[in-house]
Amino acid sequence: MKFIQTVDYVLEVTNDMLLEYVDYCKQYNKQYSASDFMKWLENNYYLSDLVGDERVSDDLTTNYLIDEINYVLDNDRERIS
Which residue in 1, 4, 34, 66 is a FRET match for 42, CA 20 to 30 A apart? Predict the structure, then answer.
């Protein structure tokens, strides 16, 4: 059985962290970019420490779950017989 579970995190970055990134870019003559910022952030901080809010959702429905359970039960019965 497969279904999708999505976890969204809201990361809270302080002004001091942004200023550190600015200094880093100046030091290495880099232009600001979201992807570079994320790499820099991952290398310098534990992202789990920055998590403010978390939202989890999945696409599992009761009907799908019951169908999968019935399928497994039917196949197990056939194997045992």
Answer: 4
